[in-house]
Amino acid sequence: DAKTTQPNSMESNEEEPVHLPCNHSTISGTDYIHWYRQLPSQGPEYVIHGLTSNVNNRMASLAIAEDRKSSTLILHRATLRDAAVYYCILRDPLGNTDKLIFGTGTRLQVFP
Amino acid sequence: DAGVIQSPRHEVTEMGQEVTLRCKPISGHDYLFWYRQTMMRGLELLIYFNNNVPIDDSGMPEDRFSAKMPNASFSTLKIQPSEPRDSAVYFCASSFDRETDTQYFGPGTRLTVL
Questions:
Q1: pLDDT tens, position by position, A51-74
Q2: Residue B113, number of CB atoms within 10 A of its CB
Q3: Exposure string (b/e) for B22-48, b if CB count within 10 Å is 16 or more?
Q4: Is the pLDDT of residue B99 over 70?
């Protein structure tokens, strides 16, 4: 499986935008980029995913580099509730496994 | 839908005892996953099922661990005998199908083995 690299931690102030980077230089042509987050004392929850084009949903936006070797999860206005560990994961739906392989993620702290 | 349901939410047991964790996936989901999370190893996949059939159990740590899915609405993860190093949070997740891909996680079971 292609690997992802994320910063261990990031900080933000409430109501400011947050850009969470992810590097995936060995991504294959059929790998989707998935983002999950894990709030304290909860199970991970799906945030967003994409293949090539930028994606938006009610939670966040996903900006994917043209060469697909990196991507950025964008929280437009951070709230205290967004404090969590954010995981960037690659997955090929055409591959021979249904696994999601979680790395160490980025721990986001949000200050009032 | 109530989401993925796990029970118990907390379990404290003594070394050597049998532990059974339970999971009810979201109705209609074909895939069920068991994960374990510790500070040292992070979140790791133990086993997953498709249509009640185990597909990949390569993450199961050893023979003390076993998982079953007798029907589409119920799965168990059993540890026998339990050891202190099994202490962790165990998550169950389900997904609709491979194409949709999104996994929905339960709240987890926090297991402490004394």
A1: 998 999 999 999 999 999 999 999
A2: 20
A3: bbbbbeebbbbbbbbbeeeeebebbbb
A4: no
Token pair, residue B18, equals: 């049998």
DSSP string for residues in A44-93: -EEEEEESSS-EE-SS-EEEE-TTSSEEEEEESS--GGG-EEEEEEEE-T
Residues of chain A in contact with residue B56, where contact means CB-CB under 8 angstroms, are 97-99
Of the candidates B31, B98, B108, which has its C-beta nearest A43's C-beta? B108
CA–CA separation, B20 vs B32, rounded Å?
16
**How far is the alpha carbon of A78 from chain B, nearest alpha carbon, in Å?**
23
What integer pLDDT is reported at residue B1 of this predicted model? 67
Residues 51 to 90 of A: which have CB under 8 A from any B CB?
87
Q: Are B86 and B113 in contact (CB under 8 A)?
A: yes
CB–CB of B32/B23 below 8 Å? Answer: yes
Q: What pLDDT digit, counting tens, does each position of B1-56 carry?
A: 689 999 999 999 999 999 999 999 999 999 999 999 999 999 999 999 999 999 99
Which of A35, A86, A90, A100 would you mutate first to test chain B, the one with the most B CBs within 10 A? A100
Min Cα distance B79 → chain A (Å) is 21
CB contact under 8 A, B31 and A46: no
